Amino acid sequence: AATTTTTTTTTSSSSAMPSSKDQTRMRIERMEADRRDRRLRTKELRANRAEEERRNISLGNPGDVDFVGLVARWREEHAGSARSHEDVGDVDDGAMMISTSTSTSTTRGDKICVCVRKRRLSPKEVLRMEHDAVTCLHPTATVHSARLRVDGISKYCDHNTFVFDHAFDEFSSTEDVYRHAARPLVRYVCAGGAAGGDGSGNGNGVPRGTVFAYGQTGSGKTYTMGGIQRMVAEDIFSILAGNGNGNGNGNNRLDGNSVKIGFSSEDTAVSVAIFEIYGGRIQDLLNNRNRLKVLEDGKGEVVVSGLEEFAVSSPREFLSLIERGQNNRTTHATEANDVSSRSHAICQILFRDKSNAGWRLRGKLSLVDLAGSERGNDTKSHDRQRRTESSEINTSLLALKECIRAIDGGSGHVPYRQSKLTLILKDCFVSKLARTAMIATLSPGSNSTDHTLNTLRYADRIKEKKVCNSFAQ
Ligand code: ADP
Ligand code: MG
């Protein structure tokens, strides 16, 4: 089990991962086989969906036959326009009338990566006769909303398309999301900030990678972030072992790309802290929900005082901490008003210099499961506490958007003091070596289209790079 430590008395062992070349090769082969399987399954599922849609149209879906038909027609017209996630380059698809206005869709080297992930219709949504009103054709996401014409009788379908760095459809796995959205940040931090950083944490600052999950409650934030946390746990120890002296060329990296500079298990200790921000309170999820304070000192350094950091030296130790954090969060969530939808949960992975007496920070990864983005109705609620919480959530999500946008703009004003969330994450916005990924999760149900549109607009504003076409038919 993990050892409880504070930042200055870390006692982790420098246990190296037993990672021979053979093991790595077997792992790669297994992953490739998995990927092939998944592609096949995906193809089958797509065929089934098309069949289902045809059936719905011919039987007359009791929900809304016009709508389902219009969406199906739109999908038929745009079938084949999806790109592969491996493709990098400008979006230039005449059929969708998309152009990239301010920047290219290159994710490599970008400071901000904005992705969307759609889940499948849930059994509940199916029971409610909702239909699938979202289409992800990478790199685009489209919401199909049913609208009534002014005559009040005839319906039409509004299709709103947005372009992102990645759009993951309902057939994408969390591994796909991890590979494209989070892993580049993990690699960047473990390489000591790669381009621009010297790995020493000196002068060039400390590399920081932050991954956010944003979306309506029930859209898949915790599902996606949970999977990403597990993959990070595996990945960092494999990267650190690969950067070590025993295997200095880093060849046991999953993709064979070598990282010559960077942290290794010999020189870098890994520790984990997990906490949540709920109604203005900061609570340690690895330490009895202890209440914590956030302080900004005269030098502008922000510390969460009292936050416990746990040293981890294997994926297993890391995973048991994640589980503990999740349990601490969900126990609470069974109470009224589902606390988990009203709190931000933050998992931080800290890389510290073992050779330095003060265990100086060398890099940091933050994985953030944000509070549900649907807050509009709560502001009319009669429950005062609920209203206050909601307005706090609104404030923090708005501040977050502005802070992330400020990363892209270089220097300038970063309004991080506007909320506890952004204050705690200050360095993720102001550091020159900060990189961010935003994963907006989407509920596909036709009853959620307004929330889904809001989510897409939020994500879109973070990186103004789309020209969206909204047209009726
Ligand atoms: P949120 O954290 O945004 O409120 P959850 O992550 O709890 O939403 O997801 C809501 C439900 O949907 C859960 O039962 C979860 O298992 C399921 N779910 C979410 N995303 C996916 C997905 N991509 N594939 C399968 N099930 C999913
Ligand atoms: Mg959740």
Query: β content, as a range?
Result: 15-25%
Secondary-structure class: alpha+beta
Q: Biggest β-sheet: count, sense, barrel?
A: 12 strands, mixed
Helix content: 25-40%
User: What is the number of beta strands?
Assistant: 16
pLDDT < 50 runs, ≥5 residues: 1-15, 58-63, 89-109, 196-203, 247-260, 465-473
Q: What would your notes on this structure say?
A:
Belongs to the TRAFAC class myosin-kinesin ATPase superfamily. Kinesin family. KIN-13 subfamily. Residues 111-465 form the Kinesin motor domain. Residues 1-15 have a biased composition (Low complexity). It comes from Stephanodiscus triporus. GO terms for molecular function: ATP binding; cytoskeletal motor activity. The structure is a single chain. The protein has 473 residues and is an alpha+beta fold. It is 35% helix and 22% strand. The protein is built from ten helices and 16 strands. Strands 1, 2, 6, 7, 8, 9, 10, 11, 12, 13, 14 and 15 form a twelve-stranded mixed β-sheet that branches. A four-stranded antiparallel β-sheet has the order 3-4-5-16, sandwiched between helices. Helix 1 (21-59) crosses helix 2, helix 4 (174-190) packs across helix 5 and helix 7 packs parallel to helix 10. The longest helix has 39 residues, at 21-59. The radius of gyration is 23 Å and the shape is globular. It starts with a strand and ends with a strand. The model is unreliable at 1-15, 58-63, 89-109, 196-203, 247-260 and 465-473 (pLDDT under 50). It binds adenosine-5'-diphosphate (ADP) and magnesium ion. Residues 221-222, 340 line the site of magnesium ion.
